[in-house]
Amino acid sequence: MTIAATRQTTRITIEALQTKGTGGSLERGGGRLRRYRAAMALEKVADGVWLLRGDFRGAMNIYFLEDGDGVVQFDAGTRAMRKKAKAAAAELGGLKRVVLGHAHADHRGTAPYMDVPVLCHPDEVTDAESDAAITPYMDLSQLPVAWVRMLYPFLLKRWDGGAVKIADTVIEGDEVAGFKVLHFPGHAPGLIGLWRESDRVALVSDVVYLVDSGRLKPLPHGEASVPHPAWAWDHAKAKESVRKLAALEPRVVGTGHEAPLQGENLRETLERAAEKY
Ligand SMILES: [Zn+2]
User: Fold this and answer.
1) Is 80 a domain residue?
2) 104: CA distance to ligand 1 center in Å?
């Protein structure tokens, strides 16, 4: 089958799944199957950009970027997503490489299982190649809610896929599948995003959150936030990086968690996000 035909099939599969509905409630039997299949579906975020959502509340994101006869994976989600990620990449023509937005446990989870070279920013290599599911600068004691604070060490270990061998590095200005690499240090030292000026699409990993990580729930629709300082390598730089993203005036911001932010006035939304903590 040609690649074009494969992609058409993917779209048809997604449309078929969407018309069946996702059955969000506690349905049994067929409902459960429908929910599972819907969770497998790739969502088209922009031209040549596919999103796979999975694991915890479906809030863990992996992006696949069409690149010639295959795809590049941006961010690696959690370990539990490895089979779906492999199936998705195969359906899109085959995986060429994985580029990590950053090395946190819930962003490197599938990377050791994908059987392709894994790349990241030079400032993430040490953490990516470490066994630790909690990076040394994280300070969970800053999280405001006790049960969330206590739960995270277990969640991070469960999400993690372990140490990742880094084959090569990318820095600001490099190109990945038609996108430009931008450096957004702060939440992690070597956090990177991908930017495509032509349609103002930014894929930014954890530069900005659409979740309240201190309470493990999504933010109200349309709201964004600089990540909580508990996770930050340098919180002041994290705020600067959110402002750097705002100044791009993106139309689509594909984040590491929850459905991408879309709209014409995202600059304002993101400038407010930088002030959250
Ligand atoms: Zn992170």
Assistant:
1) yes
2) 5
